[in-house]
Amino acid sequence: MVGKMPLAFVDCETLGLLDHHDLFELAVIRYEPGGAFDEHVFWIASDDLELVHADPTALRINRYYERRHATDARKAPSEVLAVEIAQLLSGVVLAGVCVDFDARKIRKFLNRHGHQLASYHHLLDVEVFAAGKLGCGFPVDSRTLSDAFKVAYPPNAHEALADARWARDLYVAAGGPLP
Predict the structure, then answer these.
(1) Cα–Cα distance between 119 and 138 in angstroms, integer?
(2) How far apart are CA 110 and CA 89, in angstroms?
(3) What crossing angle do the helices spanning 160-173 and 126-134 adopt, rounded to 10°?
(4) Could you read off the pLDDT of 133-146 as tens digits, one per residue?
(5) What is the side-by-side strand order in the sheet with 74-76?
(6) 159, pLDDT greater than 90
(7) pLDDT tens sequence across 12-56
């Protein structure tokens, strides 16, 4: 069954790493069985975020203030984005780097707006998958995995779409099966 399910490579950029920190950017690269990769990027309006509780270090690393007006991401009220995201992630296998973190942030966002994350209950952490293909233990540094599988590490890391693309490319380069 799982081999026939769509994959969704996801990455969130957040206001910090703690449970109370919200996501503000989400990239989803959905792959339908036998299809193509379909990219989506969402940006949560700053009016809907509790920036006063944000971690300043996180905002510096993900360049929140520099990118918030320059992004091409889909912008809409959070209630509208929640409907779109819930539909997009319904019935998929979530894949990514430390994808449990992303799944928790997505679930929190959707729940706040009355929706559920209806993805498959198993997650696919592509770094763990790639490390297993190398036959080495985990954790392995992301750049080491990039070098081992000849996947360019994104120069614009900590932008959701760049990180989701890197996860997808690493998975494919490591021999990850596509449905």
Answers:
(1) 25
(2) 11
(3) 30
(4) 999 877 889 999 99
(5) 74-76, 37-44, 23-31, 7-14, 93-96, 124-125
(6) yes
(7) 999 999 999 999 999 999 999 988 999 999 998 777 678 888 999
The verdict on whether omega for the bond into residue 155 sits within 30 degrees of 0, i.e. cis, is no
- What are the phi and psi torsion angles at 21 (to 5°)? -80, 130
The residue type at 120: Y
Length of the chain measured in residues = 179
Encode 50-63: b = buried (16+ Cβ within 10 Å), e = exposed: eeeebeeebbeebe
User: How many other CB atoms are there within 10 angstroms of residue 132's CB atom?
Assistant: 13
Q: State whether residue 150 is helix, strand or coil.
A: coil
User: Yes or no: is domain 2-124 CATH 3.40.50.2000?
Assistant: no
- CA torsion sign for 149, 154, 158, 161 is negative
| Domain residue ranges of the chain, discontinuous segments joined by + | 2-124
Residue 172 has phi, psi (to 5 degrees) of -65, -45
